Structure to design on (655 residues):
């Protein structure tokens, strides 16, 4: 059975003339034991909520999972798809892509992400089991990692968190082949992985990864463990290839006809390319059918569940929001209409979360050790711990990268809307995982506070300057920068409604005035930007565009200009992506046709030309910040009502 994986991997890579045969050939025995004897799944229902999860963290070994999906009888993974490995539109892209190929749990390829996703999946499983019971939620998350996965720093963060939370239903299978692209691992690494995992509170063992009995025994033991488990499986990369096995030459390129013939001989595989002998195919199909009774029994248990509980479970797994959201948002806005608040938008976010997390019990919050600064924990939230997985707040520790990747895993698992907190400047530490969330189209929400020089005294290391532009560069990511407490709840609502992609909420440390007074049921942030203040007399000679804390500066500038008989309007721009996605006419109406456009944001100009035009003026940052009280910094860097008004007047002189 394992040789069927090996043969398909060799043949598909050969047909594509590129790809990675080494890992599938080396890990074939591990995968065969896991999928034919342990993994709980049913090809007839790849999204069955209580299936075990399998994450191929070493995504370059994609032919391993594609061969498995084919052999196990996933309907869409035909032999034709394997023949079209790495071709446009095939179900077999170079690296596994979530949402593209049924049976793929997460998009992998950037090493280290998959193991951190798996930690998130295992957290989601424990949390939902605590809420809905083990009759409904009881599955294991398996992850196959390579040397590269374990060399990446993110893996350390993920391992530490998993050990701390004692995620006993997480099993890491390490393809311990001692080879990476440059050659033997001894060139760059001498970590004892078993000791490393043990130090993080895992059960860890080392076995021969080509011995099915040893693999099975280790998985049995892992399933009984009260801790997460590492099984380091000694393997030979490219197992079976006569001259390239055990060397980097089998890692990432087609083996070539001669080598493949030699491998076939060595493995005793006589079938022609892409052909699977009937007896072996039948064994694999039987393995694929193993899980059906378990799925049917689970469906019966679900059907027997209390109807309200069943409806809630089904809603949560499906990712639908409940009707409480709109009411919660309206209630918060009513309160703000009655008693306006001049507070930091991070505090506004906490105010919003007090209502939102009650309305939506699927929201699971957290922070990378900045809970008090990010304001992501509401008063009623319990911390999640090994003793109580029902807690809805995760103390991720100082681990931004794996926090973001674990959030992806939770969202992929389903049943949870994860949100987190860190400083905006550390979005750089989360970026690879945010990019994957955007690529996969999963709903995760990052609360990122201290969003400009407005954080003041912590200085330039902590003051984001280019981060807003850098985040806006990621396709399918929404970057929200609300101007006040009302916009903050509106942006939260939009982020929660963005089912098919991640969001970042960039929030201030410093207080900002409430600019929207009076009750307005409409979500004015929905088009991404809107006219906050019309010009005196209606027709504007100047349009002032701003986001976040700088909207108040634009409002003050508008007053200065009005005093000088210059008709200016103020447009708040909480979300570029929504504005650029709006229909042309709507966007044109929002941007308007004033003689002069001025953009104001305490960040770099990049991206703003699409709103203000290349002839427009921009008041913002073009260097790093400095350490000082924030009001002084705004003066020093010239982000003031006066400079904005001056830029507008200068522009008018030119036209
Ligand atoms: C973050 C990241 N860096 C670099 C790469 C490119 N890359 C792909 S596989 C690999 C290492 C291969 O070694 P190993 O992980 O042991 O896999 P094996 O050779 O056993 O297949 C590298 C550097 C990547 N995919 N992701």
């Amino acid at each position: 059975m394992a040789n069927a994986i090996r043969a398909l991997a060799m043949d598909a890579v050969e047909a594509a003339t590129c790809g990675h045969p080494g890992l599938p050939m080396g890990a074939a025995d591990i995968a065969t034991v896991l999928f034919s004897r342990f993994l709980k799944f049913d090809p007839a229902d790849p999204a069955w909520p209580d299936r075990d999860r399998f994450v191929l963290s070493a995504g370059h070994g994609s032919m391993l999972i594609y061969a498995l999906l084919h052999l196990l009888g996933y309907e869409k993974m035909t032999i034709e798809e394997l023949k079209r490995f790495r071709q446009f539109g095939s179900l077999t892209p170079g690296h596994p892509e979530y949402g593209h190929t049924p049976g793929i749990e997460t998009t992998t390829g950037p090493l280290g992400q998959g193991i951190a996703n798996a930690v998130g999946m295992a957290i989601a499983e424990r949390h939902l089991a605590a809420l809905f019971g083990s009759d409904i939620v009881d599955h294991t998350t398996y992850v196959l990692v390579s040397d590269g996965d374990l060399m990446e720093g993110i893996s350390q963060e993920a391992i530490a968190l998993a050990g701390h939370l004692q995620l006993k239903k997480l099993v890491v299978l390490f393809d311990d082949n001692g080879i990476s692209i440059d050659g033997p691992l001894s060139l760059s690494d001498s970590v004892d992985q078993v000791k490393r995992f043990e130090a993080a509170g895992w059960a860890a063992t080392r076995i021969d990864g080509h011995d099915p009995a040893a693999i099975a025994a280790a998985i049995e033991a892992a399933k009984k463990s009260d801790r997460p488990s590492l099984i380091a499986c000694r393997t030979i990369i490219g197992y079976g290839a006569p001259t390239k096995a055990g060397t980097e030459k089998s890692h990432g390129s087609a083996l070539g006809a001669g080598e493949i013939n030699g491998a076939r001989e060595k493995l005793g595989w006589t079938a022609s390319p892409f052909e699977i002998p009937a007896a072996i195919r039948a064994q694999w199909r039987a393995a694929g059918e193993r899980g059906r009774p378990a799925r049917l029994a689970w469906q019966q248990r679900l059907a027997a569940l209390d109807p309200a509980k069943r409806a809630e479970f089904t809603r949560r797994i499906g990712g639908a929001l409940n009707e409480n959201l709109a009411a919660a948002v309206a209630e918060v806005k009513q309160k703000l209409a009655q008693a306006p608040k001049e507070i930091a938008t991070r505090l506004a976010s906490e105010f919003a979360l007090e209502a939102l997390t009650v309305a939506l019990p699927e929201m699971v919050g957290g922070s990378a050790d900045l809970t008090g600064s990010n304001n992501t924990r509401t008063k009623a939230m319990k911390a999640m711990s090994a003793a109580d997985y029902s807690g809805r707040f995760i103390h991720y520790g100082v681990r931004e990268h794996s926090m973001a990747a674990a959030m992806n895993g939770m969202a992929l698992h389903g049943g949870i809307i994860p949100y987190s907190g860190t400083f905006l400047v550390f979005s750089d530490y989360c970026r690879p995982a945010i990019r994957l969330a955007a690529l996969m189209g999963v709903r995760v929400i990052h609360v990122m506070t201290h969003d400009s020089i407005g954080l003041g005294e912590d200085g330039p290391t902590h003051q984001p300057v280019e981060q807003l532009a850098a985040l806006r560069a990621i396709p399918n990511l929404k970057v929200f920068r609300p101007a006040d407490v009302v916009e903050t709840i509106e942006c939260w609502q939009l982020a929660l409604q963005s089912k098919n992609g991640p969001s970042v909420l960039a929030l201030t440390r410093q207080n900002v005035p409430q600019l929207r007074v009076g009750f307005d049921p409409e979500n004015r942030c929905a088009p991404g930007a809107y006219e906050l203040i019309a010009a005196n007399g209606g027709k504007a000679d100047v349009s002032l565009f701003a986001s976040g804390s700088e909207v108040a500066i634009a409002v003050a500038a508008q007053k200065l200009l009005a005093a000088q008989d210059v008709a200016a309007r103020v447009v708040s721009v909480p979300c570029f992506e929504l504005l650029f996605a709006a229909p042309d006419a709507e966007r044109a109406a929002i941007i308007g046709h004033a003689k002069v456009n001025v953009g104001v944001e305490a960040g770099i100009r990049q991206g703003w030309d699409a709103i203000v035009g290349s002839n427009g003026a921009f008041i913002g940052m073009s260097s790093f910040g400095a350490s000082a009280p924030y009001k002084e910094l705004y003066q020093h860097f010239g982000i003031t009502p006066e400079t904005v008004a001056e830029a507008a007047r200068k522009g008018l002189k030119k036209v």
Notes: The radius of gyration is 27 Å. The chain is about 45% helix and 15% strand. The mean pLDDT is 98.
